[in-house]
Amino acid sequence: MSDQTIPVVAIIGRPNVGKSTLFNRLLKKRRALVDATPGVTRDRLYGDLQWQGVHFRVVDTGGLQFDSRDRLGERVALQVSKAMEEASLALLVGDGREGPMPLDREVASWLRPWGKPVLVVVNKVDSDRELPASYEFSSLGFGEPLGVSASHGRGIGELLDAVARRLPLGSGTVGSGTVGSGTIRVAIVGRPNVGKSSLVNRIANEERVLVDEAPGTTRDPVEVTVSYQERPYCLIDTAGVRSKRRLNSRVDAVARIKALEVIHGVDVCL
Ligand SMILES: Nc1nc2c(ncn2[C@@H]2O[C@H](COP(=O)(O)OP(=O)(O)O)[C@@H](O)[C@H]2O)c(=O)[nH]1
Ligand SMILES: [Mg+2]
After folding, report:
1. Residue 169 confidence (pLDDT)
2. Distance 150 CA to ligand 1 centre (A)
3. How far apart are CA 59 and CA 8, in angstroms?
4. Interval between CA 37 and ligand 1 midpoint (Å)
5. 176 ligand 1 Cβ < 6 A
6. Which pLDDT score, from 0 to 100, does residue 2 have?
7. Domains in the chain: boundaries
8. What ligand 1 atom has the least distance to the C-alpha of 148?
9. Atom of ligand 1 nearest to the CA of 93
10. Residue 151 Cβ contacting ligand 1 at under 6 Å
């Protein structure tokens, strides 16, 4: 674990509003899996960036649903809670094409007790046409919303300005994420359901990666920084690799490609 202090900004919202697209846009990389089907993101993904001299860390999280029938929902919420514990600022992301939905209000109510600053970001404001709907998000009670388009890059500079203004400089704690030089990168690769994520959680000594009995739970490669005998290691948990003909969905297919890509960038593969 790193002891440097860098403020953490958590990207929070219901499924499918474009959190991962925004995360990728902020990092200028296609890091997180994005798909039109809801519930793709499950784990916390971290990335560091710098805006006008201000360094901070963004965390992409899974969509909050508060549906007791959804088995994974509760575990996703636990991961979102872990992101909030570290965060100095939350970006509450909504969908400007749909306007505020009941679930957005539930997310707002969930966020309030954390007592942390919240900036409402209305995504999918691809044109001025969506602006009126974006203003409606002020009813969430966290001040004036900011309209952006993560996929088109609209309003991102303004968003970064707003984030930088709100960050308490030098505060914020860091759990895991940045990988410095000298860090040994270790990929955990294998068939679905052999226990890759459980192994990572055991080594990290926390529920860092979501584990479920259903195969294919991990989708995004999840980087987890640990130290052992004073040496830093970055473990990268990956989606299970199964044969192409057994892939069930496009999300599985992309997750498989991402897992295979990880292998090329590491020092050691387990
Ligand atoms: N029109 C439009 N679509 C977007 C925008 N950002 C994301 N999307 C789409 O919304 C869907 C969900 O995106 P994703 O980032 O996976 O949402 P998440 O579940 O909140 O992480 C995908 O089909 C994206 O391509 C945007 O700014 N404008
Ligand atoms: Mg996502």
Report:
1. 61
2. 7
3. 7
4. 10
5. no
6. 45
7. 8-166, 184-269
8. 27
9. 20
10. yes
CA distances from 35 to 6, 75, 143, 241 (A): 30, 20, 29, 19
Give strand pairing partners of 235.
186, 224
Q: Does domain 8-166 have CATH number 3.30.457.10?
A: no
Helix axes 156-166, 19-27, angle to 10 degrees: 90
Instruction: Check if 8-166 and 184-269 are the same fold.
Output: yes
**Considering only CA atoms, which of 247, 146, 168, 160 is closest in space to residue 7?**
168
Task: Indicate the CATH number for domain 184-269.
Answer: 3.40.50.300
Check residue 179 and give its pLDDT.
52
Residue 253 DSSP class: H
Q: How far is the CA of 17 from the centre of ligand 2 (A)?
A: 8
Q: Which ligand is nearest to the CA of 44?
A: 2
Mutate to test the pocket of ligand 1, among 60, 131, 151 (most ligand atoms within 8 A of CB): 151
- Ligand 1 centre from 16 Cα, in Å? 6
Low-confidence ranges of the chain (pLDDT < 70): 1-4, 169-181
Tokens matching residue 197: 């994520």
Q: Whose CA is nearest to atom 14 of ligand 1?
A: 18
Q: Are 155 and 149 in contact (CB under 8 A)?
A: yes
